[in-house]
Amino acid sequence: MRTRRWGAAVLAVAVLAAVSCGDTDTTAPGGVRGNLTVLAAASLTEPFTRIGGDFEAANPGVRVTFSFAGSSQLAQQIHAGAPADVFAAADPTTMQRVVSGGDAAGPARVFARNQLVIAVAEDNPKAIDDLSDLRAAEVKLALCAPQVPCGAAARRALDAARVAVTAVTLEQDVRAALAKVKLGEVDAALVYRTDVPADAPEVDAVEFAQSAGAVNDYPIVALAAAGNPTSAEAFVAYVLSDPGRRVLAAAGFQLP
C-alpha cells in the first residue's frame, strides 16, 4: 500500500532549496495602502492567509481580506460584479473565463502547481491503494463537482486510469470533499496533495500514478474592477516573489 507518510519538513527543505537563492526586494512601491480583497481557491486557505499577514507586515498601510471558495464559484461572483481586487484560481480554465470576460486587469501568471491524492480515513481501513479500488461497491467516494478544478482534475485522472466510479456526493470545493472523509461520511475523496499534509489528523493520503497527468496550474491576476489597483498589483507581485514562493513551497505546492 502506497500511503504517503513522508515528513512535511523533508518536503519543505527540498523545495525551499530551489527558491532560496537570490531573494528579491519585496518592498512595495508607494501608494500601497488601503483595503484589499482577494478571492482565492479554497485549497489556498492556509498559505494565502500566511502570505496576507506577511504582506501586511511589509506594507503597514494595507489590510487584506480573503474570501476562499471553489474557483468556479468565485469566477461567477467576479462576473456578477462582486467587489474584489485579486483572483487566484486553482486551474487555468477557470481563470481564462475571467480573463476572456474582460474582468482581469492583465494576463494571469501561474504561481503554483498542485496534484491529487486519494484521501482516506486514518489507517486506511478499506485498504485503498489505487484508483481502481474506488470502484468497489462498499467504498463511499466524494468528488468535487465537475465544474470545480479539483473535479476536473479527478475526471482526467480517472479517465487516464480507465476507472469508472460513482460518487455518493459532489462538493463545490476541495475542502468540502475532504471534510466528508474527516467526518466519516465517506471512505475516500480525491483532493489536492496539499490538503492532506503528512501530519494531518484523521486522514491519510494515498498517492497514485495517474495524478502526474492531472496537475493543476494555479494562476493569479489583479482584477479590472479593482478598487485598489496599486495594492492589487503589489499583492500579485508578492505572491510571485521569493517570500511568497517559500510559503507556498512549505505548504506542499509545486513551484513553476
Describe this structure in a few short sentences:
The protein is an alpha/beta fold and 256 residues long. It is built from eight helices and eleven strands. Mean pLDDT is 88; it is low at 1-28.
Amino- and carboxy-terminal Cα gap: 30 Å
The shape, in one word, is elongated
Count of structural domains = 2
**CATH homology superfamily of the largest domain:** Periplasmic binding protein-like II
Number of strands: 11
Low-confidence segments, given as residue ranges, are 1-28
Structure overview:
Helix content is 34%, strand content 22%. It is built from 8 helices and 11 strands. It has 2 domains: 3-113 and 218-250, D-Maltodextrin-Binding Protein, domain 2, CATH 3.40.190; 116-213, Periplasmic binding protein-like II (D-Maltodextrin-Binding Protein, domain 2). Strand 7 (141-144), helix 5 (149-161) and strand 8 form a beta-alpha-beta unit. The protein has helices spanning 8-19, 45-58, 71-79, 92-100, 149-161, 174-182, 229-240, 242-250, and strands spanning 3-4, 34-41, 62-69, 86-88, 109-114, 116-121, 141-144, 169-171, 188-192, 203-206, 216-222.
Task: Identify the notable features of this structure and list them briefly.
alpha/beta; 256 residues; five-stranded mixed beta sheet; D-Maltodextrin-Binding Protein, domain 2; disordered N terminus; six-stranded mixed beta sheet; elongated
Set out the fold topology.
Elements: E1 3-4, H1 8-19, E2 34-41, H2 45-58, E3 62-69, H3 71-79, E4 86-88, H4 92-100, E5 109-114, E6 116-121, E7 141-144, H5 149-161, E8 169-171, H6 174-182, E9 188-192, E10 203-206, E11 216-222, H7 229-240, H8 242-250
Parallel strand pairs: 2-3, 2-4, 7-8, 7-9
Antiparallel strand pairs: 1-10, 4-11, 5-11, 6-9, 6-10
Helix pairs in contact: 1-8, 2-8, 3-4
